[in-house]
From TrEMBL:
InterPro entries registered for this protein in UniProt: Pyridox_Oxase_N (IPR011576), Split_barrel_FMN-bd (IPR012349)
Residue stretches making up the Pyridoxamine 5'-phosphate oxidase N-terminal domain: 25-150
Domain of life of the organism encoding this protein: Bacteria
Pfam families referenced in this protein's UniProt entry, alphabetically: PNPOx_N
SUPFAM superfamilies noted in UniProt: FMN-binding split barrel
Protein's UniProt name: Pyridoxamine 5'-phosphate oxidase-related FMN-binding protein
């Protein structure tokens, strides 16, 4: 069940139309951006990593690739709780009013073989230039099962979408 909470208008129960509009905004942002910052942690110390990502059409999963020898992969193996921040800023003054960002909160795991083909195709549709990187035996394709999205726009308007 999807539940929307908007801190700006303090509505606990959004209408189906409002939910659809917010999910559409999130989908448009995720589709338009190629890079995100993955947040992991190690013994309470946060760590951010820039990753190329893709979202599934239903927004329930985000996928990225990483070599198994990286710090982020090691941290994910120890604690699967992650965040991913995607934004559309251009580093211009207008960003303070026009930019938006979404933070996805969820659990990450390396993709099992039965899922790999479909998610590999989805990932390579968005990032065809990473085909050789993804084909490397040392590369892992990781899927985040999103529990919540937090959308911030117009500098202070915050809406949370719970997917579980």
């Amino acid at each position: 069940m999807t539940k929307i909470i908007s801190r700006k208008i303090l509505a606990k129960n959004s209408t189906l139309k409002e939910t659809a509009q917010i999910l559409n905004t999130i989908q448009e942002l995720l589709s338009s951006q190629k890079l995100a910052v993955l947040g992991t942690q190690d013994r309470g110390q946060p760590w951010g990593s820039l990753v190329a990502f893709v979202s599934t059409p239903d927004l329930k999963h985000l996928t990225f690739a990483t070599p198994r020898s990286t710090r982020k992969y090691d941290y994910l193996a120890k604690d699967s709780r992650v965040s991913m921040v995607i934004d559309n800023r251009e580093n211009l003054a207008r960003d303070f009013h026009a930019a938006m960002a979404v933070t996805a909160i969820g659990q990450a795991a390396e993709i099992e073989s039965q899922e790999a083909q479909a998610l590999t195709e989805l990932y390579l549709d968005k990032h065809p230039y990473l085909k050789n990187f993804l084909a490397s035996p040392s590369c892992a394709l990781v899927k985040i099962r999103v529990k919540k999205y937090s959308l911030v726009r117009r500098f202070q308007e915050v809406m949370e979408v719970y997917l579980e």
